[in-house]
Design brief:
31% helix, TIM Barrel, 21 helices, alpha/beta, 698 residues, 3 domains
Length: 698
């Protein structure tokens, strides 16, 4: 039966040691930059090499988190870091940015790349696309159910059988914090305080008080995930790696979680006392399996209570985890003692490393000769090392004497030499690639509109608009407004839902309907959408949710079919001006989506009957909540719209090819007024935001 890898987090040396000593098969950790937990202690360039060596010496793999979006001016520094990681022999890089994926493929094609959960991969098509671009492993979104996850893995194994190719590795989060938003799709922290979750500085806005009508007051906070009892099922599915969240957590948490999941991966039943201890070390009102079991709703919500804090204090005080080396590397010893020859000991591991130690020539015994059993007994004493003796071959002449201290010294020297050999880096070849640069191509400046509903078409204000996108569901049962727009030959396009769990094949009938109604352009906000829309003949356009923020990323999306890109709205105008090589645009208006979540926060209160509601923060600010356009997810929108109409000249000066107006909750009359204000370049007379276009993000 498949035994999945247990993958542990580390944000410091203490947690890294705790992970290894508890039995982790691999550890993931980051450098000082370019990782999604920049507030952890992390590792500088020297210590990250030491950490890789430490892990390799003990038979564990080292995965480096390189999982933030990158801006154009950071690519050179990112490549320098990549070169260093190749030199120290990291086992894999966990990557979010598509531009970085492209550059790794060019610079170090032998370096394994794991597609981060920040890429929001939640269907088989997304996995296939990333594998085709060079990813050896894909980390699936936490929001997938058991059936959806099993369907993805079944498809991968079936395709591998048909083609003879290797099955791509699939990694699944099994324990730790649940973000309210799908990873890579949360912009709340960035827009409220300039600290971007896509840049490793999430301020954990979802743990702050937000109230739904009739809710608890913490209606964006989910309980922690724990799938310990589901490990046999995950192994049976073919999951390659069980990932534990928590690079900001203490060593006690890492130790406790690794022990539980290592035992589960071995097929052992976890005692309830051990699960209780794991809960006490850290949880938010207990654990949930809601997404995996398909049971979303109130039971998934929970916040960190005073009782949780007290339980953690007691658990940490009672913790007696491993603080020293544990035997995990099998070694074969060969000992030789012959008359007139220096005593000799060889230690060999399963990887073919061999270390030798020699001592003095033995003497003829005057009283008591050294026996084979005594030699074997002392050579077996490997305490304080990561080794255990799998086999011990002893060859010796009779009647010879050798002091025990010599035996102990031989063992120490041989094992120390073996540890040093295992610590040596196995470098990966690196060739400096050319960083794609250049100013955007200045083409005809056009304007596009994204509407939330077909009713907004009645605004009848779209003269001069290059394209009007409508959510896919509008084309399933077209209403009178849409039919009239089709009759008038308005330039309609279709926006694919950002969330489509399991497989996008379920979207095929609706897309075919949109095609029959005249739509020829598809706006794609997730990498899993490209292949289906392209196969049906649509012209593909990348949306803001792809988090494109550098030229290499834009070129990578172009390679898989996008004719242009809406840049991430975390990209400032100054940074956008540095990009080039592809046709790009930016949002110029709209209530920006702050979160994409599969568990509606309104369900922690009274719920809703109209797919609409609001969340209220501690300052009384209200954030609209809407569903429908994003598939089986809801979106939490900004409390005020982005407005750039009085600064359009600055936007066009960046070299953009088009601007896009993003409508959500506006009435048709409001849509008409906004479009008119755009054409006239008017300033906003109500509350608005410049987003991150002027202040940027950290």
């Amino acid at each position: 039966m498949n035994r999945p890898e247990v993958l542990a987090p580390a944000g410091s040396w203490d947690t890294l040691r705790a992970a290894v000593f508890a039995g982790a098969d691999a550890v993931y950790f980051g450098g000082q930059s370019f990782n999604a937990r920049r507030r952890a202690d992390n590792f500088d360039d020297e210590s990250i090499g030491d950490a890789v060596s430490f892990l390799h010496a003990r038979g564990a793999k080292a995965y480096i988190t390189f999982n933030t979006i990158l801006f154009q001016e950071e690519l050179e520094k990112a490549l320098a870091f990549l070169k260093h990681l190749c030199a120290i022999g990291a086992d894999a890089l966990i990557v979010q940015d598509m531009g970085l994926l492209r550059l790794i493929r060019q610079a170090a094609p032998q370096m394994p790349v794991h597609a981060s959960t920040q890429m929001a991969v939640h269907n088989i098509e997304g996995v296939r696309t990333l594998v085709s671009l060079g990813a050896s492993r894909v980390v699936l979104a936490r929001e997938l159910s058991e059936q959806e996850m099993a369907g993805i893995l079944f498809s991968l194994h079936k395709e591998a059988e048909m083609t003879g190719n290797l099955v791509p590795e699939i990694e699944v989060f099994v324990h730790g914090a649940h973000c309210m938003s799908m990873s890579g799709q949360c912009y709340f922290s960035a827009l409220l305080g300039g600290r971007s979750g896509n840049r490793g500085l999430c301020a954990q806005v979802c743990r702050l008080p937000f109230s739904a009508p009739g809710g608890t007051g913490h209606d964006l906070s989910l309980k922690d995930l724990s799938l310990a009892e589901q490990v046999p099922l995950l192994a049976q599915m073919g999951v390659s790696s069980l990932k534990i969240e928590g690079r900001m957590k203490r060593p006690e948490y890492v130790d406790a979680s690794v022990r539980v999941f290592s035992a589960a991966a071995r097929g052992e039943v976890i005692p309830q006392e051990q699960m209780n201890f794991l809960r006490d070390v850290f949880s938010r009102n207990g654990f949930t399996q809601g997404y995996f079991q398909g049971k979303r709703g109130k039971q998934m919500f929970g916040s960190r209570s005073h009782e949780d804090v007290l339980a953690s204090g007691r658990a940490v005080s009672a913790w007696h985890g491993a603080d020293k080396e544990q035997p995990r590397i099998p070694v074969e010893l060969s000992f030789s003692l012959h008359v007139g020859e220096p005593v000799f000991l060889q230690a060999k591991d399963q990887d073919g490393n061999e270390a030798r130690a020699t001592g003095p020539c033995p003497e003829v015994a005057k009283h008591h000769a050294t026996e084979k059993e005594v030699v074997a007994e002392h050579l077996q004493k490997t305490g304080g090392t990561p080794f255990y003796i799998q086999a011990c071959k002893v060859e010796m002449d009779k009647g010879m004497a050798l002091p025990v201290r010599v035996l102990n010294a031989l063992r120490r020297d041989a094992l120390s030499g073996l540890l040093e050999l295992r610590s040596r880096p196995h470098s990966i070849s690196y060739t400096q690639p050319q960083i794609p640069r250049g100013r955007m191509r200045e083409t005809e400046k056009t304007v596009r509109v994204r509407l939330y509903s077909a009713k907004q078409l009645t605004a009848n204000c779209f003269q001069g608009i290059e394209r009007i996108y409508l959510p896919l569901h509008c084309f399933i049962r077209p209403d009178d407004a849409l039919l009239k727009a089709i009759e008038n030959k308005w330039p309609l396009g279709v926006e694919l839902p950002r969330a489509c769990f399991g497989s996008t094949e379920q979207l095929k009938p609706a897309l075919q309907s949109a095609w029959k109604l005249g739509a020829r352009h598809a706006l794609c906000g997730n990498i899993g959408q490209f292949s289906l829309a392209q196969s049906l003949g649509f012209v593909l356009h990348g949306d803001y949710a792809l988090n494109c923020a550098n030229t290499a990323s834009a070129l990578e999306y172009t390679q898989i079919g996008a004719v242009d890109e809406v840049l991430s709205f975390e990209t400032s105008l100054i940074r956008a001006q540095k990009m080039g090589g592809a046709k790009m645009g930016m949002l110029a208006y709209g209530r920006l989506p702050l979160m994409l979540t599969r568990n509606c926060p309104l369900k922690n209160g009274e719920g809703c009957s109209s797919c609409a509601g609001v969340l209220t923060d501690r300052m009384g600010v209200q954030f609209p909540v809407r569903c429908g356009a994003a598939g089986d997810c809801v979106e939490i929108l900004g409390d005020r719209p982005l407005w750039m109409f009085d600064r359009l000249s600055e936007m066009w000066q960046t070299g953009l090819s088009f601007l896009q107006l993003y409508f959500t909750i506006e009435t048709p009359d409001e849509v008409a007024r906004v479009v008119q204000a755009f054409h006239e370049g008017r300033p906003c007379t109500e509350k608005f935001t410049r987003g991150l276009y002027t202040r940027g993000v950290q």
